[in-house]
Amino acid sequence: MRRLQSHLEGRWVAGTGRVETLLNPATEEPLAEVSSEGLDRNAALEFARSKGGPALRSMSFASRGAMLRAMCEGIQAHREELIELSVANGGNTRGDAKFDIDGATFTLSAYAELGKTLGETRILVDGDGVQLGRTPRFHGQHMRVPRHGVAVHINAFNFPAWGLAEKAAVALLAGMPVLAKPATSSALVAHRIVEILVGKNALPEGALSLLLGSAGDVLAYVGPQDVVAFTGSSTTGALIRAMPAVIRNSVRVNVEADSLNAAVLGPDAEPGSETCDYFLKDVLRDMTQKAGQKCTAIRRVLVPQPFAERVRDELVDKLAAVVVGNPATDGVRMGPVATAQQHKDVREGIDALARDGRLVYGNGALKPLGAPDGKGYFVSPVLLEVEPGAAAPTVHSREVFGPVATVVPYGGRADEAAAIVSRGQGGLVSSVYSEDVAFTSDLVLGLAPFHGRVFLGSVKIAEQSPGPGTVLPTLVHGGPGRAGGGEELGGLRGLEFYMQRVALEGSRPVIDRLTGAKG
Ligand code: NAP
To answer: Which protein residues are within 6 Å of ligand 1, measured from CB?
Structure first.
C-alpha cells in the first residue's frame, strides 16, 4: 500500500515502524498508510528556523503576499483532484469537499491581498507614537516584527485543506516558517496540497514542512521564539498547554477547541415567516454539512416556547428528506463521520443527550445508500428536544461532533436566551435570527462576552450570507472558555500571534527612520 511521506528538512521522508492506515470512511477501504516513527522532529524544527525563517524575513509583506497568491493558484489548479481525494478520505460529499478546498484558497487569497496592501515593508507599525519627554524629541512608538522561531500547526481531521491553509497563510504572511501536522485520519488532502506546493516551488526552502502521523515528541523541542497553534479537542489542547517545553520556554499557544454553538430564534420570527424559514435553512445546513463535523455547527436550537412544536416539526420534515450514504453515490446529501472512533463518540453522545430530553428525529442508526453492507461510519441526523426550563446538563456541556442538535424552548426574552446559551461556557459562534432590532441588540450584548463571533441572522442579509458556520478570513475565529480561549484570522489581527510587539523608546528622528514614518 502507498506509504505517505512527511516533508521535513527540505526533503520527503518516510517514518519507519508502526503504521497507521488511512481509510475511506464510507467503505472502510484502506487508502494509504503513514508512520512518523524515527523522524527527527528536532532537526525538522531547526531546519525551519534556520532556513525558512531568514528567507521569509528577507521578503516584504508584498512578496510574501505574492507567495500566498502562488500557493492559492497551485491549489486551484488541482481543485478537482483534491475534491476527489476529500470525498474518498473524508467521507465528504462534493459540496463538503468544495467547502474545505475553496475555503483554503479563499483564505490564502484574502491574505495575499492583505500582503499587497501592506506593501514593501517588513515591520508593522502599531498604533500612534507618543511624546514621552518635555519636547517631541523623546518619543515612543510600538512596532511588530516576525518572531525568529517556527510555527507548529496541529490540525483537526475535519478540514484538512482549510485548516492547513488558514493557519499557514497568516503565519507565512507574518514572516514565520510553518511545520504543519494534519490529523492522521484525513491526511491525504493535506499531503497532496504540500506535494503540489513543493512541486511548484511556491515557497522558499524550509518555509513549509509537513509532519504526517503522530505528533510524537515534536513539542518537546519548541523554544522561546516558537509558537504552537492547535485545533482539536479540548482534552488535547489542555495536554499541549501543559507540555514542559511549552511552559519552560513561555511558548505562545493558541487553542481552537470544542464549542456548543447556539442559534436563537427571536419571538418576532413566527413559523412561516421569512426569518423563521431562513433560520431553519441554516440549522439544517449546519446539522448535515460535513455530517455535522464543523466546529462552528449549531448544536443548540433555542426557540420561543409558543413556536417550539411547529419549528421542531418543520425541522423533522427537512431532516427526513436528507439522503445519507456513500458520498460517491448520486443523490447522497450527507456522508459518514470520519472515523470509527468518531462513530463511537457520536453514538455515545446521542445516548447521553437522550438522557436529558427526548429523541424527536433519528437515533443514529440507518441504512446508508450506496455503502457496502455493514461497512462505513454512518450516523443518521438526530434531533432532540428538552422540556422548557429543564436543567439538561449534557446538552449544555457535551459537544457531540456529528449531525446532532437539540431544540431548547425558552420564554422569548433576550436575557433568558443569553443565560441559557452562556451555559455552554464559551463558544466560537452563536446566532440570533430576528428582525426586531431591540431584541437583537439585547441578545448580542448578552452573548458577546461568551463568544468569538455573533451572527445576526436577518432576511436583509440572507441572500449574501454563507451562514454562521462559515469562518471568514476577515473576521476573528476562536472563542473563550470551552472553545479554547484562542483567536485566529481576523485580517491583520491574526498576524499578531506570529509577531513580537516591541516598544521603541528614544529619539524621534531615529524611530521615524526605523518605522518609515514621515516626520
Ligand atoms: P484531537 O483528537 O484533539 O486531534 C487534533 C490534532 O491533535 C490531531 O492532529 C492529532 O493527531 C493531534 N494530537 C493528538 N494528541 C496529541 C498530542 N498528545 N500532542 C500533539 N498533538 C496531538 O481532535 P480531533 O478529533 O481531530 O478533532 C475534533 C475536535 O476538534 C472537536 O472537538 C472539534 O470541536 C474540534 N475542532 C475545533 C475547531 C476550532 O476551530 N475551534 C475546528 C475543528 C475541530 P492525530 O490525528 O495523529 O491523533
So the answer is: 154-158, 181, 183-185, 214-215, 231-233, 236, 239-240, 256-258, 295, 399, 401, 428, 483
